[in-house]
Amino acid sequence: LMQEFNTIKDFKRRVCNDKSADLEPWDEDYFIGMMKSSAHTVDPSVVASYFPLSQCIKGLNVLVESLFGATFHQVPMGDGESWHPNVIKLSLHHPDEGDLGFMYLDLYSRKGKYPGCAHFAIRGGRRLSGTNYQLPIIALVCNFSSSRGLTARLNHCDVETLFHEFGHALHSLLSRTEYQHFSGTRVALDVAETPSNLFEFYAWDYRVLRTFALDETTGDPIPEKLVKALNASRNMFPATDLQRQVFYSIMDLTLFGEHTSKPVDTISAVADLKRKHTSWNYVEGTHWHTRFSHLINYGAGYYSYLYARCFATTIWQEVCQGDPLSRSTGSAIRDKFLRHGGAKDPSVLLKDFAGDSVIKNSGGGIIPDISSLCKEVGL
Q1: 165 catalytically annotated
Q2: Which end of the chain is more exposed for a tag (fewer CB within 10 A), N or C?
Q3: Which pLDDT tens digit goes with each residue over 369-378?
């Protein structure tokens, strides 16, 4: 951490021609961005030219067809079923099993719409009878520019977000639980973000990207050199990034933890945590945590992103990385993980899927093994 902090500080001093300049909290993103740009030539407009939204949607189809032998097909909606003209409905169809579930795509920004990207479970799957199963229905909601429709270009961050939410969608669509309360993402919070984090890896792997990331003019696939540059840029300052995520998690758990009857000053609490758990000062007079949306709809749950990042990295390395698009990889993902929803003990589920090394016992419970994550980011 101190090595990365000092590297950023030295860079600022060179840029500002001030040998005594210290780092301020607002310097973190600014100078890290500058250093990444200077170290790796990645032109955002060039990257975006390989990710028209229409091609990215095809990329989702590549995933389900390669991994699970299924395909998405647009299906008509009944009267009053759609909430906006831009919404489309897709059936996830398997040639032997029939329809597996339905997904609404609501991808474009508009006034008054939920501002982020998210997966929403509309109806969970459940067993109705011996041969009759209630199919899951979900919505995948994003906020991409609506001005150019399917020709809109996505930056790579948006592609990663799309794949993240698609991981949640697959969890819902491919689970086959007896009861809907265990369907799909209705799992223990410790593992809820694992499928989404796993499918983020697919957004960074050249073997996957070359199947759909095509230049909108020439049709040429994205160059491997460009994908390597994207990955190299992402992997800079891993300790600083991890420290930030740990701080967010500690802040979340502190604010939603046990308190005395005395009112808590959240600004002071966050400031103290910032000073204690990061390398950066707290800016007095600010209250940025009031805009940290996870505190509102994911209270005491932010830690699960760190857990999931560890679980997903081990799964990627042990199960998927060797051949990420093979049918055998897909069968393992579906049959050993997604199918079970929340109906199987998470510790048993993870060990059966990725091996005993995926978790450790601690304090009467389980925690992720961090070795795979450390290896992945070079720590």
Answers
A1: yes
A2: C
A3: 999 999 999 9
